[in-house]
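Batch job 17 of 40 flagged for manual review because the log was empty.
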Amino acid sequence: MIIISLLSICLLGGSCTPPRDFDTSLKSIVKPYHFSIVKWESKTIPIKAKQWLSHRQNDDQTDTVLEYFSLVERIKGLESKIAVINASNKQGDLASLEAELNRLEEQRAALAGKVERIIARQIEEALAQEGIFYPMDKYIKLKASFPPLDFKLEKPPHLLVISPRDRIETMREITLQPNLSLEEMESIETRVDKLGVSSLVVELGGLGATYPTFVADNSDLLSTINTATEEWLHQYLAFKPLGFLYLLDLTGISQNYEIATINETLASMVSKEISAIVSKKYYPGYEDSKQEAESGFDFNQEMREIRTAVDKYLAQGEIAQAEEFMEQKRQYLVSMGYAIRKLNQAYFAFYGTYADSPTSISPIGVELKKLRERSASLKDFLDTAAAMTSRQELAESIK
């Protein structure tokens, strides 16, 4: 965890390499909005340790988990009502709604610690079922997860993602404060874009660069299980060749977008399988609140077509045309009910590292799926991919 925390501190500054003019200008822009991982760790770890020592044997109630996520949905509904009243001239009892919101948030906060422990234990049981315990299990045999799976239900920091304008590739990723307003986010992006790059402030669902990891406190149950698992997998992978190279990429020491894509996609694929085991065993009747109604619009196909067209524009040096095209498509997606705030090179650089997502056209996703199909088990798949140090190894593994 010390290694991860040190690398995370480098991440705050965007790079561990000596700053150039670009980095100096960038740091002056983001300095007022920095998120201090060190301060957050110093505040959170003692609290988590106290909770762990006090409640090691008392967390068996899945009903508590379901109660927590019922509160989450009720809170989101109230927030929507309040937002409508604030943004319009519609009449409504704002004071009573805000009082009810505060009451529900207090109830949610009171249950959070217990819910964290229950879900963490359930995920660890699913990992154990698949034989996934410890990154160095070839040398040391442990029947316990390492790092110990622990997360905090709290709003994660924002992430500033920066890509060159002439290609889709992550240049920098910098963690920012979690409570940025929309105006602050757009101000940061405008000032960073003036440095000749493409930028986007992303609202994260989780963050694995801390211990315990962050998991957003406003997601549904299934998303929470998936995110908690995925962030733990990033910590697990940090002790493997693939994950260590990804840390070097994140800190700017040795950037490798293909390694980042393999790492993110691997963690995403494994977490989905583990999450399915947990939900089937403990929450078989729970329905994902994010399931979308059937419609004739294929969002995934649309995003792949947009990404393909943007890559063609950029390959021909038509940067302005690519950016104009993305804004036109963003407006179209909004009209279809997909509230994408900003669609640019940085958007695709961030979401494109998940090669199993619609924002990526990388063949890495297909290659990893083939490797999974040919693997004897989920652990075999994880260990094989985690030992890789290049895209070439992945391609050769499925020949």
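Reviewer: the log was empty due to a logging misconfiguration, but the result itself is present. The chain has one domain: 2-282. Unflagging and moving on to job 18.
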